[in-house]
Amino acid sequence: MQQHPTGDELEFIKQYLEIPFLLDILEDNITKMKGAEFRLGDIFLFHLVKLQDKLTLELAEIRKQMRNKGMKVIDTKRTKVEIRTKYLCRGYTGSMVLLLDRVKADLSMKLCELLSIDINEMRSL
């Protein structure tokens, strides 16, 4: 009997899908900052690149954990409203749909955590 993925395994798949989305956003922001003239732009740019590096390492670790657990994402499609994927987990084939509004909210919280920002304080701006 094929066992369904655990909550932790589903979280790996979710992060596997969300982190590349965040890396794309950071890359876009880095490109925009390079073309802009900020007085302290190098400092901001450095910070974004460090975030990128940290997230890339995190994604590599997630991939390693997924491999060790016999998990594999086999197909992913991103639209303007969702990320849709099919995956294998210990012989079980499943699918997952992440709405981009939810992904953006999750990634905002992740960035706040990485930057040690209290999201409640940020919302008062």
Question: Can you give a write-up of this model?
Answer:
The chain is of the alpha+beta class and 125 residues long. The protein has helices spanning 7-35, 41-68, 100-114, 119-122; strands at residues 71-78, 82-89, 92-99. It has one domain (7-117). The N and C termini lie far apart (53 Å). The mean pLDDT is 92.
Q: Could you say which structural class the secondary elements and strand pairing correspond to?
A: alpha+beta
- Helical content stands at 55-70%
**pLDDT < 50 stretches:** none
Tally of structural domains: 1
Strand order within the widest sheet?
A: 1-2-3
- Average pLDDT over all residues: 92
The sequence of SSEs as H and E is HHEEEHH
Instruction: Determine the N-to-C terminus distance.
Output: 53 Å
| Number of beta-strand segments | 3
The main pleated sheet reads as: 3 strands, antiparallel
Number of helices: 4
Shape: elongated
**Radius of gyration, CA atoms, in whole angstroms:** 17 Å
DSSP strand content: 15-25%
Pfam families: YhjD
InterPro entries: YhjD-like
